[in-house]
Specification:
Distance between the termini: 108 Å
Number of strands: 2
Strand content: under 5%
Radius of gyration: 64 Å
Helix content: over 70%
Largest sheet: 2 strands, antiparallel
């Protein structure tokens, strides 16, 4: 590409040009990969495309990223980008711009994929929230049912107590009449004691079960409230992460490590070690994501098991079943607590990995800054040597130019003498050309006059043709009128079918008569040819006889007269032999006088 087209290409890309060089605005926020989600650099499915972090961890990450961003911006302000761009060639600048455009397209695609996955996860969370609300409503309904059942049991307990008091009063009134039957009274009293003991035992069990059920329901409500609050926090953090992800879509790091093994620089080796550590952290993040997916499935199974246990709880069930259900719920709670602790530890690992990434980014930027400074310092003496060599080469070239100019001046003198001679010759040739041009101009004028005359003739012809065209148009209109009349006649003739059949029959008759006449005419022609042949033979024979009579040299007059007589004997129109005073031919030839 030409250098004149480079400013246009940079301006079309939105880059400001100054003195023929692209101007980068250093006060604008520079791109960084600190705020990019780690899922953009990993091949993961929809369930592991994001990580939910708490508000404190997000604040810590944002503060750390702002500090690193300020450090990077301070270092970037110290770099002279004009000197870097001036050292690059036009082809390198074009290749860099093309690479940046390709990376921008790839980043847009990755951003779209991440947005889609985040939307899918957000929809899943919303569906989970709806399901949790439904479960909460069902638990409330069951809690109200259990309260009603407890109230009914308490009422039954009061009825039993009233019945016991009434039976005791009845037994006291009947004690005087039943003194004789002490044994029976003792038995009845023992039975009453047993009944009271059983009633008290039943009441204690009912109170214990009601208290346990109430406690369980209260704990379940508290857990549900905590889960709802936790889900709402997750949704709000996801929304904030999605907003920050859309606003801070930065470019990922691409490290060229082609010459790491060949170079022995300590800084390069340290940077390579940091890069390996970065890859290890990435692999640990991948493992954390895989473990997170398995934990999500475990949590779902545990929640499902809890729901099944809650559904199978019956108030009238035995204490063993209730204890088992309570035990399973406690196990599920412990499992959920363990999962939460593991999530917290993994979040800490992720925060550590992110801090390591930030350190790597800052090390990379500082190394680049140092390399640029070293390049500038090393380039100064080399530039001086290059300038001296260029000046020496320029002096040598000037000496060569002076010698060449001397030789050129000597050759120019000889050329001027030769050119003077050729100029005189050219002047004589130009005079001759002038005379020829004058004659050609005269011829041109005569040709112009003839062309003008031809133009006038052509204009007259054009006018005549226009008149003819108008006349032909009028004739064509008349012919069209006649054609319309013929069409009308044709339409009338089509209606006369009988006349057409009669005319066809007449035409057939005429055709047969014509064919017979043609045959007769052909026969007559054949007879005429035969007779002419016979006459010719007779003439030849008569001529031979005349030659014998008149001698070997007959006169030419007799031959001419005989030829004229023969020519007058045949008709010119039909070719038949003419008889004097009679019609000859097929009826159109005149009789001979």
């Amino acid at each position: 590409m030409d250098s004149s087209n480079l400013p246009n290409t940079f301006e079309s890309l939105g880059i400001v040009m100054e003195d023929g060089k692209p101007k980068f605005r250093l006060n604008e926020p520079a791109f960084s990969t600190v705020n990019i989600p780690l899922s953009s650099n990993l091949e993961c499915d929809d369930e592991t495309s994001f990580v939910v972090l708490g508000q404190s961890s997000l604040d810590f990450i944002n503060n750390a990223s702002l500090i690193d961003y300020q450090q990077i911006q301070e270092k970037s302000m110290a770099v002279d980008y004009k000197s870097i761009i001036s050292t690059l060639s036009h082809e390198e600048i074009e290749s860099k711009v093309a690479e940046l455009l390709q990376e921008n397209v790839k980043l847009k695609e990755i951003l779209l994929q991440n947005n889609r996955s985040m939307k899918g996860q957000f929809n899943k969370l919303m569906s989970w929230q709806e399901e949790l609300m439904k479960v909460h409503e069902s638990h409330k309904h069951k809690f109200s049912e259990t309260r009603n059942m407890i109230r009914l049991l308490q009422e039954e307990n009061m009825e039993l107590k009233t019945k016991l008091t009434s039976t005791e009063s009845m037994m006291n009134t009947q004690s005087s009449s039943e003194q004789n039957s002490k044994n029976s009274y003792r038995l009845e009293s023992a039975r009453d004691l047993n009944a009271e003991f059983m009633i008290k035992h039943v009441e204690d069990e009912l109170e214990n079960t009601s208290d346990v059920n109430m406690k369980q329901l209260l704990e379940l409500n508290k857990r549900q409230d905590r889960d709802l609050h936790y889900r709402q926090e997750i949704i709000s953090s996801l929304k904030a992460q999605l907003q920050t992800f859309i606003e801070n879509s930065f470019e990922p790091i691409k490290l060229q490590m082609n010459d790491v093994n060949t170079q022995n620089n300590k800084n390069r080796q340290q940077f390579y070690d940091n890069f390996l550590h970065y890859n290890e952290k990435l692999s640990s993040v991948v493992k954390c994501y895989a473990a997170q997916t398995s934990r999500f499935t475990n949590i779902q199974d545990c929640l499902k098991h809890c729901i099944d246990v809650i559904k199978t709880i019956d108030i009238n069930s035995s204490s063993e079943v209730q204890e088992k259900s309570i035990q399973t719920l406690e196990n599920c709670r412990k499992q959920l607590i363990n999962e939460q602790l593991q999530n917290i530890s993994e979040r800490q690992n992720l925060i550590m990995a992110q801090n390591q990434f930030q350190k790597i980014f800052s090390d990379y930027n500082s190394a680049l800054h140092e390399l640029e400074l070293l390049r500038e310092e090393n380039g100064k003496p080399i530039e001086k040597l290059d300038i001296l060599e260029q000046e020496r080469e320029e002096l040598m070239e000037k000496m060569k130019m002076i010698n060449d100019e001397k030789q050129q001046l000597n050759s120019a003198k000889e050329k001027l003498i030769a050119e003077q001679i050729s100029f005189e010759q050219q002047q004589a040739g130009l005079e001759e050309a002038k005379a020829s041009l004058n004659s050609q101009s005269m011829l041109y004028e005569t040709e112009m006059k003839t062309l003008q005359d031809n133009m006038k003739v052509m204009e007259k012809r054009h006018d005549n043709m226009l008149q003819l065209s108008t006349k032909l148009k009028e004739v064509l209109q008349e012919k069209n009128i006649e054609l319309d009349g013929i069409k009308a006649r044709l339409a009338i003739a089509k209606n006369d079918a009988e006349t057409i059949t009669i005319l066809k029959q007449q035409l057939d008759l005429y055709k047969s008569d014509f064919e017979e006449e043609q045959k007769a005419k052909q026969q007559l022609i054949n007879e005429r040819e035969f007779l002419t042949d016979q006459l010719g033979k007779l003439r030849d024979h008569n001529q031979k006889l005349l030659q014998r009579i008149n001698g070997p040299n007959p006169t030419s007059v007799s031959q001419e007269e005989s030829n004229e007589h023969l020519a007058d004997a045949f008709c010119n129109s039909c070719g038949l032999y003419k008889m004097p005073g009679q019609w000859h031919g097929p009826g159109f030839c005149q009789p001979v006088d």
